[in-house]
Design a protein that fits this description.
The protein is α/β, with parallel strands linked by helices. 38% of the residues lie in helices and 19% in strands. Strand 1 (16-20), helix 1 (25-36) and strand 2 form a beta-alpha-beta unit.
């Protein structure tokens, strides 16, 4: 590595990314990888029927953990069933951190109780409707493996194909933009 390259900013430096359902599983891995690549991440804990924990507290703890290693993440909470609150989220994040570069929504598996897959697809559509024209919208199907998905999200935002990685996401993975 050249001396000058060692002072180059992280590849996603200056990017602001909203991640819905960012506090557990796939969302947590995606959030950590985005932060490590230099993005400022809005960590959105999504409250919903059947959630046995506090989404806002989980978001705050994850952000504290990431800040502890020098990464930028701010906690947010939204009721996944409150469309107006979801629609307002991109504007709130833009006011707090800056204009959104991208939004990532983690959709639970189809067999998740309470119709949560449909609820999160509605969240995804509402988030997309609130994004600036230039922002990228990515919806991730929870069925795929977390590490492969996180790599593909970061690669997509970096503008690479991800072909350098040893394993590609499974064909059942749904990543839409």
């Amino acid at each position: 590595m050249s001396h000058a390259a060692s002072y180059a900013p992280p590849p996603l430096d200056g990017c602001v990314v909203l991640v819905v359902d960012a506090t557990t599983g796939t969302g947590r891995v995606v959030t950590a990888r985005l932060c490590a690549a230099g993005a400022a991440v809005a960590v959105v804990g999504a409250g919903h029927r059947g959630r046995g924990d506090d989404a806002a507290t989980n978001a705050a703890f994850l952000c504290k953990e990431l800040a502890g290693i020098g990464l930028v993440a701010l906690p947010y909470q939204v009721d996944a069933e409150d469309t107006d609150a979801v629609l307002a989220l991109p504007a709130q994040i833009a006011a707090d951190i800056g204009p959104l570069t991208a939004a990532v929504v983690i959709v639970p598996a189809e067999d998740t109780p309470y119709g949560l897959a449909d609820t999160f697809r509605a969240v995804s559509a509402a988030v997309e409707a609130g994004l600036p024209v230039h922002a990228v919208h990515i919806e991730i199907d929870q069925e795929a493996r977390a590490e492969e998905l996180a790599r593909s999200v970061v690669d997509r935002l970096l503008g690479t194909s991800g072909s350098e990685s040893e394993s590609e996401p499974e064909s059942s993975t749904s990543i839409r933009g």
